[in-house]
Amino acid sequence: MLELQNITVLFHPNSPDEVRALDNLSLSIQPHTFVVVIGSNGSGKSTLLNTLAGSLTPVAGTLRLGGRDITRRPEHRRAALIGRVFQNPFSGTAPHLTVAENLALAVRRGASRGLRPALNARLKASFRERLRDLNLGLEDRLDAEIGTLSGGQRQAITLLMATWQHPELLLLDEHTAALDPRTADQITRLTERIIREERLTALMVTHSMQQAVTLGDRLLMMHRGRLVYDAAGPEKRRLRVEHLHDKFQALRRADLLDPSAATLLHQAYV
Ligand SMILES: Nc1ncnc2c1ncn2[C@@H]1O[C@H](COP(=O)(O)OP(=O)(O)OP(=O)(O)O)[C@@H](O)[C@H]1O
Ligand SMILES: [Mg+2]
């Protein structure tokens, strides 16, 4: 179980530019849940994922993963528990290492020094098998430098690396946004398959309303650092793109009003 209790994250605290990027946010996510996160630009989606990963530290609140309090645990000490894929296909892999060498890094992550497997023929054969399974023609590219692959192929490898060790939490921040529509679709299907097959707990940020209604078990909508909509089960399955557009429009209208009226409207519409 992932639990956030009254989490607040500030940028430029105690200055005129203070931004409350997460505002007293509370949220519980059951294991093996695939959560899709939407919200307009600046609503706090990346801040949420960065806080879970430990790249940002909240000024208040508690963060628990699998019963452990990880609120103050530094990012590198969460890495074994958390897999991440970013929007940019260039982050997450070492460009001058080969596909096999990059995958070997992922396999070794979290293993103690003596137990780190060598990149031998057996390990390479297991990589080849896993890559063949992806159906992207990557099984013949094991010795190619990652930098020579297309963005889509890199995201597929990054996804494989992020999930190889079966992380307790997988964080995907608009990881298909920089890809052409066909490739984005391919990576989306691959993402869904890996999450289902490995029964992962995942948070996926997207601006695609289509993805938001078709993917995942639960949908969260953020606005101004808060959760304004949370749907799961039959409610999530019944959602249509138009419903989400209506919610965004209601939020935009509410933002034009004074704060107390906005709060009322949020409650009425969302
Ligand atoms: N490094 C930073 N320094 C100052 N303010 C920041 C920083 N990162 C984010 N913010 C601010 O925090 C708020 C939340 O930003 P965040 O990046 O989490 O939004 P987002 O929902 O991911 O938006 P997008 O859809 O554009 O990616 C915004 O007001 C943003 O300007
Ligand atoms: Mg973002």
Describe this entry's structure for a reader.
With about 270 residues, the protein is α/β, with parallel strands linked by helices. The protein has one domain (about 1-240): P-loop containing nucleotide triphosphate hydrolases (Rossmann fold), CATH 3.40.50. The chain is built from nine helices and ten strands. The strands form two sheets. The chain has a six-stranded mixed beta sheet with strand order 6-7-8-3-9-10, with helices on both faces. It has a four-stranded antiparallel beta sheet with strand order 2-1-4-5, with helices on one face. The chain is globular and about 65 Å long. Magnesium ion binds near residues 45 and 46.
**Could you name the CATH topology?**
Rossmann fold
**Which structural class best describes the helix and strand composition?**
alpha/beta
Low-confidence stretches: none
List ligands, each type once: adenosine-5'-triphosphate, magnesium ion
Q: Percent helix among the residues?
A: 25-40%
CATH superfamily, by name, is: P-loop containing nucleotide triphosphate hydrolases
Share of β-strand residues: 15-25%
**Based on CA inertia axes, which overall geometry fits?**
globular
Strand order of the largest sheet: 6-7-8-3-9-10
